[in-house]
């Protein structure tokens, strides 16, 4: 089954907003084994939209659109779709009441234009919108399916979950199951090369590698008929870990390094604290992004100046003047001291040059990451640029992922 | 002049990566007054690509593609384009040497496939790629232009700047100038309504409003002929600020609230520190995202537990037990104490419930933001949910923007 996703909105064509709807829908369709054939972004223009429906239905069975369902006069995609399928628009009293209720609840005045939103194609399945005024719909005509959603992701996603997923479960008897393997310390091409023979062992498995800033994710997938289960995917993951090399694998479950770290901390019932310089709070932000992090994380200190490194984190002024803030010695004291101040089981520290300024002796990208645990404290030197141009953001994310990897290694090797 | 942007890549269609290239190119074309007519995403398939070129050139003058220029056998878009325009591929010795040099520098082995990347359409303008192996090109044939870029943004963007911008400057005599107005505390529809008459005063101005989590950006734009300047845009910004209401306007320059705050701190030569609970380091991370923040920000303490609020931030245990961590009293002590510990001119504190847990008395979304300055310390209560469903992420971003707005208000009102 082929699908085309159409995003309607001039603000997308202008580059003013990033189209996250199409990404979400692509992912969901992949899950149901529905092939996304093409994605298109267009402005709101009824004639052009009709032409696109005409062209695209030659190649696909399902068209899914987002946007263009607003109340204003230039939101005409719904009308164009009705013309294309030659079905009339029908007024829905219940939707009209819903829209009135929405305005009452939010205390805003309803414009007469909003009445237009209560009209939908005859014979469609209505997708009610509890988070906005524009309902969506599913229309099946001439062996083709058209599903139209409003544009705001906060309205689209709940509607997708309530209506589109049950619809896909009805029409597709396939499910794609996937598992992620999180690797660190290995390049994408190396990971890809090492995984090469996996399909010799498991011919039904597909795999792909994705490089992120500082880590590589491997995705294994398998298509099953509905309701069938099989242990193949789990066995393939085991084999993949063996092929890649266990020391590079940081999780076969978590979507990112911070989640892998928090899960490991929870499983071992230990806590972590952080002392950050160049990462500026990013590491504590990422740790606390993980829901439930409060059981393993209590404190992070961002010491962005030498005065704070010595005044708050008690790094010795001699060390700061002799070795500088960007040094093994400072990283070690930062980690050791924050661990003592907080009383956590382990502590991470980061000090480095994220740019824009650096010099020959201490170039941009030079970062020291310290780790302190019951067996002692050490620091590791990284040079994240080494001939490559990296943005400030990149260096900070690379530092955070390196810190998470170091903490995971430490916890595993001392077996708390 | 109409342009269509084509992104080539199966990983985009699968929703595995977000297509930031198309967003960047859309923005750049808007700047040169080139109308983006459509955006398309397709997999790597030579026949389909040729069909799309055929269809799209009926409506547009320029097609810009990203991706599909890799060394592997299934990267065939370049070849398909040559067939479409009926031009042969030419071997470029200098590009081949470049590719060899790239592999030498990075210490990796070059595959024979990479030689394919040194072939480009006859008569094209080569776009050299210092950050990768795939060169791009600009081909002008039959009154149409085809510009092909490699997919990785780190390769595409520098090539765009070096080659595509000079090309657009040559072919387009228009420039679109834009100015952003950053507002806080006003809804998108209110801002839009208040701005309604701006085109009566400045008919040549276009405007648009964009809602973000916790703020609304207004963009004013004007098209000029090349090299012409006019004070109209500046005057329109002044008028727009007057129409929206000055108290809602936080910057007519900065792209976001943290940059507006850092710029204001710098201009007044004052420093800020932060004490965060539910935002978990997000505020210090956002402040240090701004290049040059180190002159105004020295320290942020993330106190994620009561033990740290009392032990590190010296919040009185009586206050914590009587009023709880999520209270005016705690927010005030956090701000006051971090300001004293750090010795900064002002200090911000945030304590609240970002979820998932909350209760009736203290629901998810309840956040107290404290601010301390030389004139004293106070806290403001926010309820970011109030009948709406908000994610943990949303509540944290709303809290950060509210904190930035509060700090900007404070600095302006006491005129440091």
Descriptive account of the structure:
2 copies of one chain form a homodimer. With 416 residues, chain A is of the alpha/beta class. The first copy, chain A, folds into 3 domains: 2-171, MoaB/Mog-like domain (Molybdenum Cofactor Biosythetic Enzyme, Chain A), CATH 3.40.980.10; 174-251, Alpha-Beta Plaits (2-Layer Sandwich); 257-414, CinA-like (Maf protein, Alpha-Beta Complex), CATH 3.90.950.20. Helix content of chain A is 40%, strand content 26%. Chain A has 15 helices and 17 strands. Chain A has a 6-stranded mixed sheet with strand order 2-1-3-8-7-6, with helices on both faces. Chain A has a 5-stranded mixed sheet with strand order 14-13-15-16-17, with helices on both faces. In chain A, strand 16 and strand 17 form a beta hairpin. In chain A, helix 3 packs across helix 4 (77-85), helix 10 (257-268) crosses helix 11 (282-289) and helix 10 (257-268) runs parallel beside helix 15 (392-414). The interface between A and B is large, with 68 and 70 residues. Strand 2 of chain A pairs antiparallel with strand 2 of chain B, so a sheet runs across the interface.
